[in-house]
Specification:
By secondary structure, the protein is mainly alpha-helical. Helices cover 51% and strands 7% of the residues. The chain binds tryptophanyl-5'AMP (TYM).
Length: 333
Amino acid sequence: MERILSGIKPTGQLTLGNYIGALRHFKDFQDKGEVFIFIADLHALTLPIDPEVLRNNTRDIAAFYLASGLDPKKTTIFLQSSVSAHAELNAIAQNYLYMGELSRMTQFKDKSAKMNDKEIGLGLFAYPVLMAADIVLYDADTIPVGEDQLQHIELCRDLVHRMNHKYGTKDHDLLVMPKGSVSKVGKRIMSLSDPTKKMSKSDPKGDIFLKDDMKTIRKKIMSAVTDMEANVYYDPENKPGVSNLLTIYAALNDISIEEAAEHFKGCTRYGDFKKEVADTVERELAPFKARYEEIIASGEYIEVLKDGAKRASEVANKTLKRVQNAVGLLTLE
Ligand code: TYM
């Protein structure tokens, strides 16, 4: 049976980009295979974060997972830090990924470029090692993510290739080779205030946060940067703002970009166009947000995470044993 795994890190407020590029799709896999969805809280420590903020963001993601339609009976939902095998496999895997390849990671280059050398932790540099451990622990085949994570998944594939070559046998691979899966529409949602930049959790200007109230969300959409042409069509190079709004509209209506462009053909008033995009976003997010509030108030995510940790540990510990044994660690059983 196909194994699907993905995670979101609780570094900041979740955005519409996280929702469209990843979160919204997780539930679609529930009836296709065995799904593991986790909160990458250890990864959140790779940049400075206040402990209380981290805890609150973590609760938020748990509630967002449930609000998005993930059913804990079908999907194993858990916290990365509550399954110790992640850190243990990380300690092994770090010996099979190399400094040169880690230093070429776009995310590391972007993030470290904004920091003083003295503040760049080893964890930020080694981020993709832990991510590779997350993936291989569950023998995952399919990793639904936004486009920005594909480079990390490629590195994970290199790790799998390397370890299989060294420790696999003719008949048995040690690790399962994963592949990234990005959605056709919305794999990279851009900022509303600067549509040449990715919408991201650490850039509050022009980003729609899932916790913003509907009025704020509508306001952000109505004031999204566009262009002077007053004609709605898809051309990401010359009309990045309009193209981004078209993408959001298409993704949330489950239609293609071409269909969305056709729908707005002849529309010469950006105000009308934006209003329809805002209506679509509201139709999708209003019930989702209401459900999120209920889950936070009831605290039902706590039991879900406890149960998820047990189920995830069972699977992860088996892989860990297999790897420990393969690399030559003496297991005393
Ligand atoms: P994170 O927390 O940065 O983002 C969570 C997911 O949201 C996607 N995403 C976007 N998609 C479209 N448009 C955007 N503007 C946008 N911004 C973010 C991301 O691609 C991601 O899928 N390293 C991961 C967390 C992680 C993980 C893993 C994921 C840790 N271990 C193992 C998969 C498998 C991350 O930081 O995602």
